[in-house]
């Protein structure tokens, strides 16, 4: 636990997990420094299109989907993220107009990388993008300012915003590398910046291959031993069984904060490596914002 509140960057590669390759060295480097695990999602409704999926899964990360209709109706009054988390100042960086509208309703300030960096091609200059993100969080020249414009910045990339996602995943990889490089352990800000990298599988149709190869369940459901296996916490909420948990194709998450987060034995950013060596195991995606808010001293600890 840090002796001062952290400030956080969340990089969210929407639908980009299947594209991760050995050439994305910054993903793997960060994973080797981090505590890694999974965020489970509910099953997709049968008629859901990709735009609706994008908003719904982002809503899971903010834990607003129980009241998602309220958040999507223009005239409804709903609690903002600041209301819910002790004045938390949060912003969303995205080019997607649907997410921009949804984010505003949730109380997020909408920014663009162009605004943050003052450049018309910021993602082609990853160190400029990383520097801009750190600046709005009150980090400059390796120092932590007493005040900041925001406590939390969420950066959404992917979901078809680049051709075949290859441009998107390269930009996320480069941005990860720039941030980790700028937050050296010897700098003052290294123990104050909480960095989360989330990569999701996007639209999943539940085919047999993904259910078996990307399942977070450790025992065969048909095994007699499964009757003796205790319910895992990600299948429960408020002591009651969750009715809709997709146990395959979860979001992959690596979290790093120097001298604060525990380092596990993960060596590469991959489903199999996370499953075999990850330290964070599995939590529902709707608990993510609570975990981050705790690091920022804006919420009580969730779980153990």
From TrEMBL:
It comes from the Eukaryota. This is OLC1v1029231C3. It comes from Oldenlandia corymbosa var. corymbosa. The lineage of its organism: Eukaryota, Viridiplantae, Streptophyta, Embryophyta, Tracheophyta.
